[in-house]
Amino acid sequence: MNWQGVFPAVTTKFHQDGTLDMGMFFKNIDAQLEAGVQGIILGGTLGESSVLSLDEKISLTSQTVAYVSGQVPIVLNIAEGATHDAVYWAKKAKELGASGLMLLPPMRYAADHREVVSYFKAVAESTDLPIMIYNNPIDYKTLVTIPMFEELTECNNIQAIKESTRDISNVTRMRNKFGDRYKILCGVDTLAMEELVMGADGWVAGLVCAFPKETVNIYNLVKAGKYEEALSIYRWFLPLLELDIHPKLVQYIKLAEQLTGIGTEWVRAPRLTLIGEERIKVENIIKRGIENRPNS
């Protein structure tokens, strides 16, 4: 598993009646692959995993694996409240042909240091799939600390970290402590260029769902040391990237996908599509971005 490059956390596409829209889903996947992403992440927050049935998650994973057919790795997100459920999905992911896992700390229960480490180890020991730990204390209330990561070094298949602490210096802090033991991928769109400059290996991206070429271009330019070229795109992109750090990021990004022609805005309740002044405001941000798009 090569935890480098851009990994879109893709949205799950629905028809207006709430059923899965695999045709539009694959249209978006095609756009991601054409842009040069290095992996696809299923079942994250943007994927609305919490409102998918077990059968839908299985179908979405198996169909994506078959459609992508090894062009890039498929990573399945695991966000569960019970350890046995997380272990189930780790085993099921392997069975369905996924290449790796993105793993959150236990959901809904504020686990302590020992419990978080035990949870991660239990999942890691249940599979040989490579794992990326998702460290997002802002949204999910559990900080995976450096001492925790130190204990997890004994799990060889825990290989990467989705860095979403909002603390840019944490990239340097992790490098100072662990060297290259863990790959680090930025998980916050509005900090992506900054973290890549500081040595992050990749970018788990959100607005890539609507703007794949620009996202990949920023990554490639930074890694080539072409900072001024990257910055010109990043400055254009920032008002759009800020849609990723709002509680309604799913609705915002899905609307952006619809306006760029590679998605639909339909979400599942309790989420509702945007209306009124909020919709007008978000549409205007997206339309300005499209009108001034560097690669249009």
From TrEMBL:
InterPro entries in the cross-refs: Aldolase_TIM, DapA-like
Keywords: Lyase
SUPFAM superfamilies per UniProt: Aldolase
Superkingdom of origin: Bacteria
One Pfam entry name: DHDPS
SMART domains: DHDPS
Family under the similarity heading: Belongs to the DapA family.
Protein name: Dihydrodipicolinate synthase family protein
Organism: Belliella filtrata
